[in-house]
Amino acid sequence: MKEFFRSRAWSFRYAFQGWAYVLRTQRNAWIHSAIATAVFLVGLWLKLPARDWAVIILTAAFVFSAEFINTSIEAVVDLATAEHHPLAKIGKDVGAAAVLVAALAAVLVGLLILGPPLWSKLTQLLTVY
After folding, report:
1. The pLDDT of residue 44
2. Is 52 inside a domain boundary?
3. What does the H/E/C string look like for the chain?
4. What would the pLDDT profile of 37-60 be if each residue is shown by its tens digit?
5. Catalytic residue at 67?
6. Is residue 49 in some structural domain?
7. Which has the closest alpha carbon to 44: 93, 94, 114, 100?
8. Which of 3, 67, 74, 83 is catalytic?
9. Could you tell me if residue 114 is inside a domain?
10. What is the CATH number of the domain that holds 122?
11. Cα 53 to Cα 49: distance, rounded to the nearest angstrom
12. Quick check: is 17 in a domain?
């Protein structure tokens, strides 16, 4: 049983090392992090209900997962070949497209969830002054 828990702990350690690698090496991961932080702060300010938080958290996880998978695809392709091969380009381009789709979906989810209450709150603040 002790070995089971030790191996689980190492699994988490490896996962966090992968996460740290992505944050250290991928500029877009920093952009995703900054936007996610802003969305979370706005959500706290708006006092979003639990269901909205669930959707926002799942959406952010979707974007980060796509970025992580894209980074792993790029690493494996780079390991497989140093030369520019048409299939390597396709693999990398499709991975990047997955991140783009996730990010665009996140923008739409953000607008749908944050848009109406944010507009209402800003309108209230502006009409008071």
Report:
1. 98
2. yes
3. CHHHHHHHHHHHHHHHHHHHHHHHHCHHHHHHHHHHHHHHHHHHHHCCCHHHHHHHHHHHHHHHHHHHHHHHHHHHHHHHCCCCCHHHHHHHHHHHHHHHHHHHHHHHHHHHHHHHHHHHHHHHHHHHC
4. 999 999 999 999 999 999 999 999
5. yes
6. yes
7. 114
8. 67
9. yes
10. 1.10.287.3610
11. 6
12. no
